[in-house]
Specification:
The protein has a nine-stranded mixed β-sheet. The chain has a single domain, classed as 2-Layer Sandwich (Alpha-D-Glucose-1,6-Bisphosphate, Chain A, domain 4), CATH 3.30.530.20. By secondary structure, the protein is α+β, with helices and mostly antiparallel strands. A hairpin with a 1-residue loop joins β7 and β8. It has four helices and nine strands; from the N terminus they run βααββαββββββα. It is globular. α3 crosses α4.
Length: 216
């Protein structure tokens, strides 16, 4: 089960926008109900196998940050192969149309990705070029060097716990260059990033199951 936690600061900021001075009670009520439905649609726990997954998001202004982790009973080599499989990410990551390595120099890569942020009537194409540095088999660090994002950074880390469980951690921050719709904009971005991390975990588990020896 995935838990998405929105910071109290975000909730207060959004609530202030829902109650402008002078708005009638009936109008406020309708708008509050609409926002509640949107929030519920964006924050419903995402289905996942019986693994421990935690996702926390926050935002300030145009900045959105995501901190996520998952603990899995898998071979760490499988986890590394998935998070570094740049040319096939679009096959299992939601809202990503293409991903390809355009340049590789040892552990340094240039990756080009295209996708979109979308919810209901809102669709925003996203294009980004990422400078990626690998530290196999434990860490991948990336930051945007082109595209329609003002700022984008991400970091994946793999850790083997004393119990033998593999922990995958992710930290990301995004400031888009394009305009987001008021009120729900940050929620859309947070929802997309949370779904993408969950999809990454599910792909690691899927490949891990395929690689596991059949039961006797």
């Amino acid at each position: 089960m995935v838990s998405i936690t929105v910071s109290a600061m975000d909730l207060r900021a959004d609530a202030a926008m829902l109650h402008p001075e002078g708005m009638s009670f009936s109008c406020r009520a309708r708008r509050d109900a609409t926002m509640l439905l949107l929030a519920c649609a964006l924050c419903i726990p995402l289905a996942a196998p019986a693994q421990q997954i935690s996702i926390e998001t926050a935002g300030q202004g145009d900045l959105v940050t995501v901190t996520a982790s998952a603990e899995m009973q898998v071979d760490p080599r499988t986890a590394w192969n998935v998070i570094s499989d740049y040319d096939h990410l679009a096959e299992f990551i939601p809202d990503m149309r293409s991903s390809r390595v355009v340049l590789r120099d040892g552990d340094k890569l240039l990756v080009e990705q295209m996708g979109e942020f979308g919810f209901l009537f809102f669709r925003q194409p996203v294009e980004v070029k990422l400078a990626v540095v690998e530290y196999p088999p434990q860490r991948i660090v990336a930051h945007a060097v082109g595209g329609n994002v003002r700022e984008m950074e991400g970091r994946y880390e793999l850790e083997i716990l004393p119990s033998g469980v593999v922990r995958l951690s992710y930290f990301g921050r995004l400031v888009p260059e394009f305009s987001l719709p008021p009120i729900i904009g940050r929620m859309v971005v947070r929802s997309v990033l949370a779904k993408q991390f969950t999809a990454m975990v599910e792909e690691i588990l899927r490949r891990g199951a395929l690689a596991a020896p059949p039961p006797r």
